[in-house]
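During the second half of the funding period, the structural biology subgroup turned its attention to how the target accommodates small molecules. The most pressing case was SN-glycerol-3-phosphate, which had performed well in the primary screen but for which no bound structure existed. We therefore specified the complex as follows and requested a full 3D prediction, including the ligand pose.
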Amino acid sequence: MIASRIIGHRGAAALAPENTLAGIRMAAECGVRWVELDITLLGDETPVLCHDDELDRCTNQSGPLSFLSAIDLPKLDAGVWFDGSWANEPMPHLSDALLLCQELELGLNLEIKPHGIDANIIARKVFEEISVYWHQPEKLIISCYEQEVLSAYRSFDLFAQLGLLFDHLPDLWLLKAQALQAVSIHCDCQLIDQDEIKQVKQSGYDLYCYTCNDTALGKHLIESGVDGIFTDNPTLFNSDEFRGHLQSQSSGQPA
Ligand code: G3P
Ligand code: MG
C-alpha cells in the first residue's frame, strides 16, 4: 500500500521537469512520501524514465526512443524544455532513479509504459533492475495499463505489489485484479464515481486516483474513500487546513 495520501506525479511535474532526478528531489522537498514515475525502454533495452515513446515533448531531441541506446543518453537534455533554469538535466537510467528515491526515503509507484515493447521483455528488465537496486518491497508498487505486462511481472515476482491502471473502472476490474493478485486500483480522478469508489474499497483494494491538481477535488476524493491522489503539484495540498483534513480521515494514514 502507498502510505501517503499525496503522491508526486512524474516526480512533481508542475514544478520541475517530469521523470527526472530533479523532479524526484523537488517532490521530496515538497514533503511527499511517495512519487509516481514512468519507465520505458530504449532500443537496446536500457530502462529509462520517460512517459512518451518519443523524445520530442520532454527533451531537446526528437524521434523515437526505440532508435536510441544507452550511449545516446548523455546527449539528451530532459530539463531545458521545461525551463532554461533546468538545462542539462539528464534522462535518468532507472537504476539512478531507484537509488535516489531510496536515499530520499520515498516510496515509489513505478508505472511501466510498454509502448508496444513485448510484455515479457519490459517486465523482465524492470524486475532485474528492481532486484538489484530496490531494497524495500513494501515501498514499491508496480503499475501498468496493460494486464499482460503485470502478468509477466507477476511471473518473475510472486510477492510484488501490483497496481492495475485504468482510465475508467471497467466492469471486469475485480476479476482482473484477482487474477493478478493486485493490491491496488489506479483510476482517472475525473472519471470515477462514488459507487465505483465504494466497490473498490469494499472489495479490499487500495484506490489511487490521477491526476488531481485541484485542492477541492482532492479533498472530495479523500472524503469519498480514495486512499491517495497523484498530483503534479504537491504544494497544493500542503496547507495546514488540508493536512488537518487528511488526519481527520479514518484510516490514520499520514499525509
Ligand atoms: O500512474 C498514474 C498516471 O501517471 C497514469 O497516467 O499518462 O500520467 O502516466 P499517465
Ligand atoms: Mg504515469
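Two results from this model are relevant to the next phase. The chain has a mean pLDDT of 95. The pocket of SN-glycerol-3-phosphate (ligand 1) is lined by residues 9, 36, 38, 51, 111, 143, 165, 186, 210-211, 230 (CB under 6 Å).
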